[in-house]
Every structure is written in structure tokens, then in C-alpha cells.
Amino acid sequence: MRYFNNLYGKFQIGKKFGLIVGFDIGAQQQRKANSGYHVWFSPVLIAQYRFTPKWVTALRAEYYQDRWGVIIPSSNLDGFAASGLSLNFDYTPIPIIACRIEGRWLGSIDNLFERNNNLTNNSFALLASIAVKLQW
């Protein structure tokens, strides 16, 4: 049996600043007919600032721990544990199109990330996306 909760609070502080505080937690039964559970969790904090109705930025800080490899399998004896920071800029030129550029860093005490066929303890990615909202 597996249980999962996505708990969060969204707070709008004035017209330009918003805050999301979240905590995801899950538990999976170790074995059928067993009362023990493997737990994983992830707290997150997202601060958002609206420059104009079309330009928004957000800073995200998060931590993820899955000691038993329920969601993220790991060959590491301590399972998977990592912290992350990301900064994104969103541009919505018209209501049905959203563009995003984001820099994201993940780090861990252990070498969990692959870079150039080697394991390392951190990872950085620069991402860009365009989303189109279609309604039928």
C-alpha cells in the first residue's frame, strides 16, 4: 500500500509578491501484510515576483529525501537525498502562450548525478520552454 500527500499553502502578499510553502510526504508499505513503511518527503519554498502582468520571476528552494529508493532508486546505501535551487523568468505575451527560461542546480553530499559518464555531487541545467494552451 502506498500513501502520498501534497500539502501546500499559497500566499499572495500584495499585488506583486507571492509565496508557496509546500511539503510532500509519502509512505509505502515495506511488504504485504507488514506494518512497517518506507517514507520519503520533500519540503519546498517558492517566492514569486510579478514585474508586470506579462513578466514574472520565481526562486525555488527544495529538498528531497528518499532513503529507501521508493520513488528514486539509488545504488547509494543512504538512498537519494538532494537539495535544489532554481530561478526562472516567465513571459506571457498573450494569454495562450507562456515562455520560460530557468536555471536549476541540484546538489547532494553523495555522488548521485551523472556528468560526462562520471558521478558527481551536483548538477546544473539551463532550460527553456514554450507552452501553448489549446482549448477545444
Describe this structure in words.
The structure is a single chain. By secondary structure, this protein is mainly β. The chain has one domain. It has strands at 2-13, 17-29, 37-50, 55-66, 80-94, 97-107, 113-115, 118-120, 122-132. It has a seven-stranded antiparallel β-sheet with strand order 1-2-3-4-5-6-9, with no helix packed on it. It has a two-stranded antiparallel sheet with strand order 7-8. Strand 7 (113-115) and strand 8 (118-120) form a beta hairpin. It is globular and about 50 Å long.
Round the Cα radius of gyration to an integer and report it: 18 Å
Largest sheet: 7 strands, antiparallel
Estimate nothing, just give the exact number of structural domains.
Answer: 1
Helix/sheet category: mainly beta
Mean pLDDT: 94
Which series of helices and strands comes N to C? EEEEEEEEE
Summarize the structure.
The chain has strands at 2-13, 17-29, 37-50, 55-66, 80-94, 97-107, 113-115, 118-120, 122-132.
